[in-house]
């Protein structure tokens, strides 16, 4: 299916790029739809033998449910828990825990058959979502998502089997064990003791566990974005708005800073001088160190089409290659597994260290970045090897997602832009998987030219799709 092409009715999926997502209590997240989603998931679980990549043998039947700090999260978790319980599954309430924390629990606790995360990740507080996590610790496969979607469309609800399952609050245990695992995964903790680190928890799921982990490693933690009120998640803070932390890093004289997003699966680093970096810098530094240590057997780092060409050039200077995938950390993960590549991620800060975890984990990625730096922890100097080309990402709000390559005016604008760039840049068009947005990304050697060309393509989209803004 071409990028942006609508699915056929028989193939329509309730899942976007990262789970089911909508405004809380509306659409797919209306109370009746949430009950239907949970029932469809139970129905699909009854056929779990058809999905061996998701459900290895020997697991229990419990469902572990976590959430972020949105005010709608508690009610959604309660409703989902009640459906799973009524249909015979024991439910483990993990409370507020990052998505990667729920993935770790799903993998580490043998009684867990499935992880469920109620979160809309980096989206504003009025949104929420439902993500499914396999007991392998990875996001659930597209095949299982398709089975859940089919059951949802058909209105299937698995019949109850025996007595309702017990709902048990194990949030304190999950928090403690996950924090202990994270702190224990740091490979060079002796270099961190007494150093100042600045953190921005995005008022989200990582706002407790991230400071706790760095404190356990002996660092002097200076945190912002750690006062959630249900409505301020991702609000002028976190990975999408790192400038506030950049100022904080300089003010408290931290050696480094880390911004997390609402569900804690991505990280944006900040240098001691207040320079905001991104996932490309982490991939380069980790890739170079992994190669030096003989831990990158195929000399390849996996990223998406959104990563800057500067990453590609920097990796090549160290004898490494960049393998690009479509947007989405699951696409990165699947390419990593298929090719035997231990390191991959997205420019946005979703970073997967496959030797440690099958999903993006912001806190783990921050620790791995500290591990691969030289003893001075001079991120400013080491990251300077990545010379990023000017890159522009613009969004056009749309009413419908017509295939962009089928719009003559858009195709002409793209062709003209590529001609102006003359082979020294890239144009990437796609629709958001979770929002009604067309995303236009341009990259090239001249910032003014890139900005102008991006504007011309956005204008072509607006002309081609009535009601766009």
Notes on the protein architecture:
- The chain is an alpha/beta fold.
- The protein has four domains: 9-170, 3-Layer(aba) Sandwich (Alpha-D-Glucose-1,6-Bisphosphate, Chain A, domain 3), CATH 3.40.120.10; 178-262, Alpha-D-Glucose-1,6-Bisphosphate, Chain A, domain 3; 279-383, Alpha-D-Glucose-1,6-Bisphosphate, subunit A, domain 3 (Alpha-D-Glucose-1,6-Bisphosphate, Chain A, domain 3), CATH 3.40.120; 391-464, TATA-Binding Protein, CATH 3.30.310.
- 36% of the residues lie in helices and 19% in strands.
- The protein is built from 14 helices and 17 strands.
- The chain has helices at residues 31-45, 73-86, 99-108, 142-154, 171-185, 209-216, 243-252, 279-292, 309-317, 329-339, 362-372, 379-383, 408-421, 447-464; strands spanning 20-23, 62-67, 91-96, 112-118, 127-133, 167-169, 196-200, 220-224, 256-260, 267-271, 300-304, 321-325, 343-345, 351-353, 391-397, 426-431, 437-443.
- The strands form five sheets. A six-stranded mixed β-sheet has the order 1-5-4-2-3-6, sandwiched between helices. It has a four-stranded mixed β-sheet with strand order 8-7-9-10, sandwiched between helices.
- Helix 1 crosses helix 4 (142-154) and helix 5 packs across helix 6.
- It is globular and about 65 Å long.
- The chain starts with 19 loop residues before the first strand and ends in a 5-residue tail after the last helix.
């Amino acid at each position: 299916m071409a990028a942006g092409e609508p699915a056929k009715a028989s193939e329509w999926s309730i899942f976007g790029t990262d789970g089911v997502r909508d405004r809380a209590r509306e659409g797919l997240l209306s109370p009746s739809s949430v009950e239907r989603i949970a029932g469809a998931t139970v129905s699909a679980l009854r056929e779990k033998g058809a999905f061996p990549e998701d459900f290895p043998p020997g697991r229990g039947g419990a469902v572990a449910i976590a959430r972020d700090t949105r005010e709608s999260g508690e009610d959604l978790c309660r409703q989902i828990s009640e459906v799973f319980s009524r249909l015979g599954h024991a439910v483990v309430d993990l409370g507020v825990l990052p998505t990667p924390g729920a993935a770790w629990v799903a993998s580490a606790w043998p009684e867990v058959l499935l992880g469920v995360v109620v979160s809309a990740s980096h989206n504003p507080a009025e949104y929420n979502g439902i993500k499914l996590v396999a007991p392998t610790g990875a996001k659930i496969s597209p095949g299982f998502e398709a089975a859940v979607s089919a059951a949802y469309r058909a209105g299937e609800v698995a019949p109850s089997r025996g007595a309702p399952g017990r709902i048990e609050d194990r949030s304190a245990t999950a928090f403690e064990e996950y924090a202990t695992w994270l702190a224990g995964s740091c490979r060079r903790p002796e270099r961190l003791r007494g150093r100042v680190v600045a953190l921005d928890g995005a008022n989200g799921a990582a706002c407790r566990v991230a400071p706790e982990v760095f404190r356990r490693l002996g660092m002097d933690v200076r945190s912002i974005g750690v006062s959630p009120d249900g409505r301020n998640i991702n609000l002028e803070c976190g990975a999408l708005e790192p400038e506030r932390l950049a100022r904080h890093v300089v003010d408290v004289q931290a050696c480094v800073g880390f911004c997390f997003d609402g569900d804690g699966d991505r990280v944006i680093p900040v240098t001691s001088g207040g320079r905001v970096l991104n996932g490309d810098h982490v991939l380069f530094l980790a890739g170079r160190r992994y190669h030096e240590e003989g831990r990158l057997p195929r000399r390849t780092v996996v990223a998406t089409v959104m990563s800057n060409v500067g990453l590609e050039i920097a990796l090549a200077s160290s004898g490494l290659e960049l393998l690009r995938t479509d947007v989405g950390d699951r696409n990165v993960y699947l390419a990593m597994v298929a090719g035997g590549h231990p390191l991959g991620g997205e420019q946005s800060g979703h970073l997967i260290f496959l030797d440690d975890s099958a999903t993006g984990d912001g806190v783990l990625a921050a620790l791995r970045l500290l591990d691969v730096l030289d003893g001075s922890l001079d991120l400013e100097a080491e990251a300077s090897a990545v010379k990023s080309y000017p890159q522009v990402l613009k969004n056009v709000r749309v009413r419908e997602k017509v295939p962009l390559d089928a719009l003559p005016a858009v195709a002409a604008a793209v062709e003209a832009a590529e001609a102006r760039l003359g082979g020294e840049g890239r144009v990437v068009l796609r629709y958001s998987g979770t929002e009604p947005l067309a995303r236009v990304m341009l990259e090239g050697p001249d910032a003014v030219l890139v900005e102008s060309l991006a504007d011309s393509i956005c204008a072509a989209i607006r002309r081609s799709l009535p009601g766009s803004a």
